[in-house]
Amino acid sequence: MEGIDHLADERNKAEFDVEDMKIVWAGSRHAFEVSDRIARLVASDPVFEKSNRARLSRKELFKSTLRKCAHAFKRIIELRLNEEEAGRLRHFIDQPAYVDLHWGMFVPAIKGQGTEEQQKKWLSLANKMQIIGCYAQTELGHGSNVQGLETTATFDPKTDEFVIHTPTQTASKWWPGGLGKVSTHAVVYARLITNGKDYGIHGFIVQLRSLEDHSPLPNITVGDIGTKMGNGAYNSMDNGFLMFDHVRIPRDQMLMRLSKVTREGEYVPSDVPKQLVYGTMVYVRQTIVADASNALSRAVCIATRYSAVRRQFGAHNGGIETQVIDYKTQQNRLFPLLASAYAFRFVGEWLKWLYTDVTERLAASDFATLPEAHACTAGLKSLTTTATADGIEECRKLCGGHGYLWCSGLPELFAVYVPACTYEGDNVVLQLQVARFLMKTVAQLGSGKVPVGTTAYMGRAAHLLQCRSGVQKAEDWLNPDAVLEAFEARALRMAVTCAKNLSKFENQEQGFQELLADLVEAAIAHCQLIVVSKFIAKLEQDIGGKGVKKQLNNLCYIYALYLLHKHLGDFLSTNCITPKQASLANDQLRSLYTQVRPNAVALVDAFNYTDHYLNSVLGRYDGNVYPKLFEEAWKDPLNDSVVPDGYHEYLRPVLKQQLRTARL
Ligand SMILES: CCCCCCCC/C=C\CCC/C=C/C(=O)SCCNC(=O)CCNC(=O)[C@H](O)C(C)(C)COP(=O)(O)OP(=O)(O)OC[C@H]1O[C@@H](n2cnc3c(N)ncnc32)[C@H](O)[C@@H]1OP(=O)(O)O
Ligand SMILES: Cc1cc2nc3c(=O)[nH]c(=O)nc-3n(C[C@H](O)[C@H](O)[C@H](O)COP(=O)(O)OP(=O)(O)OC[C@H]3O[C@@H](n4cnc5c(N)ncnc54)[C@H](O)[C@@H]3O)c2cc1C
Prior knowledge:
six-stranded mixed beta sheet, 13 strands, alpha+beta
């Protein structure tokens, strides 16, 4: 059956041009060509083989990760890959590794917080990987509460040095990726103390290991924090612990772009907002949003192809059974995830634009949009990672029993992805940041300050607080204004209700703590509005290609109406829609599922994933699932011998009843 495309019928049904959709998914023809070329390069290189990852011991997995990273670096140099191509190469190698933190956080932290001189010195080393760095912020006792970090950096004017110290066990750095076994350097976040005064958290470049023999430098204790969830999965990463015993570094290793300490030990505060010290987190949260669509689309691609291959029930007189993708229940679980993958793609594109815009403004000393950029990156990171992690698990269930096999690709994908709900800010803690931003915006309504950007809708409070949806028939739910109005009214009404409830408390902070759960829900409603509105905005762009826009339109309204259905309680209790309108939305949703059904396989083909990248027997491009499941089963070490190890010691005595006591 090798060489036969078992999904050919599905592909023939498609009503749009897949090649054109591939360009839309990639973002541009250029981006598509780069991704396509690099994905094939990785897939054809035996060093990047990954099908046996789960069977490796932690040590073997880690060593093979080091090998892959070194080989990737060699190929980048040999092929003279540019930054974009190198990034795609690391992406398609698809193995969490120290390089993610080196390129993803260490380098950006120096770029964002280092002076020009510091950038020149440290980036020239980091860019050539003559030093390897990590981002050491979280401590054993403090992760979310950055202000609560305990590590100290005390200035010693006698020697012009900072003394980096871990005063307690809870102050030990704990979690930084790449720290455990690899990094030679770290950007360490510590409390800056000079002239006996604590000036709060600042970043410092600290060398951890010898560049000669890799041993830890004196007074530094460093190691790996231990095995994490899942076989293979995130265990290729050396998340580490780190303790300093009065380690001295030169004063000029404090990242001084924002604030400084002079030779005399005087603290010179920054003339820009102090929150810019959190800038690396804003950057990474933005990349995590862009990455959510990769992970979700991968799971959806596997579940969609397999749902088209898999048949259950419905056979009459020995005929073939029904493809499980034809069951409305399967569609109701799968198609909203397909739509979410596209929605997150487009909101990720938009967030990248927002981040670039705020960065340019900051460079021109315009800080006005920083709070919004923080709220958007925090809220969308939280929203998209939660939905993606849940979505991957749903895809596993959509694949029935075979989804639970490691070779489905889904267990490992879930185990690698799920910590995204925690790292770079716990998802609840991040939504609370959005809630604070919303409460401030609501408080300013009526003050003459006009809300802008993603909160511009709040400026139409007079209308949105009292409007009733005009939807009268199912098709009305395909009207962008109707959908936007319902989402805007719901988000605003939830925020305003929270603000009203807050105002009943004398102590605002106490009130905030009391209302945390409602505030998170209001923040989620606001973030969902952002995603829906950016999908609708995408449809307003000039999108070419046969039938492409129609498909995107269907997916956009599936995303919106599915959310409406899922959060019906919000929409009904805030009187944004009536039960009748909710029922019409459901009718429309079912109709959209029917329209997407013949296009489903082509819509996941548009992700252009190689079989290597998917690493899934169930998600194979050719749909040749069953023989390949057998092949994988035969490869399992338990099948190396017909009679298992341990038979003579532990099975035979049981079977032969040699373990029976005399009494029995
Ligand atoms: C394409 C491929 C891409 C792949 C993508 C993968 C990349 C890497 C992959 C994987 C590796 C994972 C690596 C993980 C790394 C980490 O986890 S690093 C550690 C991350 N840690 C956190 O995120 C901690 C979370 N906590 C915080 O961010 C903050 O402490 C806080 C919760 C925001 C609270 O801050 P604070 O204590 O200061 O308290 P507040 O009083 O609430 O805030 C003060 C004001 O500051 C504003 N604020 C807060 N944060 C920011 C920010 N980041 N930017 C701008 N402004 C900020 C806040 O709104 C307050 O403002 P106000 O005074 O006006 O109200
Ligand atoms: C795989 C992985 C990689 C990581 N990589 C790095 C790295 O490279 N560098 C680095 O510095 N760190 C890293 N981290 C650490 C990560 O950033 C933190 O774990 C994260 O910020 C969450 O903090 P925490 O662990 O302290 O959670 P906690 O804050 O202890 O959260 C525990 C619970 O308390 C709740 N909670 C906490 N505060 C509040 C509040 N104010 N209101 C309501 N609820 C609250 C949370 O919602 C959560 O349910 C990594 C973590 C993981 C899992």
